[in-house]
Amino acid sequence: MRTGVEMVAPVEAPEKAVLTATEVWKAYRKGWWPKRQELPVLLGASLELMPGEVVGLVGENGSGKSTLMKVLVGDLGADSGAIDRTESFGYCPQVPVLYERLTCDEHLELFAAAYGLGPGQLAQSRQRLYEELDFARFAPTRVEELSGGTRSKLNLALAMLHDPALLCLDEPYAGFDWDTYQRFWDLTRDRRGSGASLLIISHFIADEERFDRIYDLVDGKTVPR
Asked: Which of 163, 179, 210 is the last residue of a domain?
């Protein structure tokens, strides 16, 4: 018996991107008028990351990759364009921002306080990252005594400490040996499996199959590969 009421299946809302950059322009300026010079770097760069994606951003040295990354994380203002980003993100800069006289443990404690992590959350995340990146033996060691590779491990661990939904990583495996490079991709696979998204900048990509999508930064614009 028909009632005259037609049942319609609910439509699932589309997934929201965790990061969207639209037509980002950025130029560096130096000097004073009337001899002020302008160096255009980004000329309308756009990209998007959906939940659970691993996306690469590739370009030659000086192409503007790190400038775009700094704009995406809010470390640098764009001249124009729009950025829409989840509040839950971690940033691993190309050059580690570390305090020479603090130990690895002290860095993790400092960043945990900034992220608002409780003692239990810190203990769990710290143990996991020490194991995943294999540098627990350096927990009590000051940064000034660490090798470049171990500094890079700590730099990456600080970005991942609070288990963010989005990771923005600028040359994250520079200085890693082969074992740590493999550990990095194991770690990436695990984070992706839990729904996190990763934007990875590099001047070259050897393992394209590890990425869902790749953008090339060419003449200030992002070009999907």
From this structure: 163
Sign for the pseudo-dihedral over CA of 130, 131, 132, 134 = positive
Among 138, 163, 188, the domain boundary falls at 163
SS3 104: helix
Instruction: Give residue 195's domain range.
Output: 15-88+164-225
- Asked whether residue 80 falls in the same domain as residue 27, the answer is yes
What's the length of the chain? 225
Count the neighbouring beta carbons within 10 Å of the beta carbon of residue 142.
16
Tens-digit pLDDT string for the chain (225 aa): 445 555 555 555 567 999 999 999 999 988 777 777 888 999 999 999 999 999 999 998 889 999 999 999 999 999 999 999 999 999 999 999 999 999 999 999 999 999 999 999 999 999 999 999 999 999 999 999 999 999 999 999 999 999 999 999 999 988 899 999 999 999 999 999 999 999 999 887 878 899 999 999 999 999 999
Residue ranges of the alpha helices (H) in the chain?
A: 65-73, 104-115, 119-133, 148-160, 178-193
| Token couple for 5 | 């009421």
Q: Decide: 57 and 47 in contact? Cβ < 8 Å.
A: yes
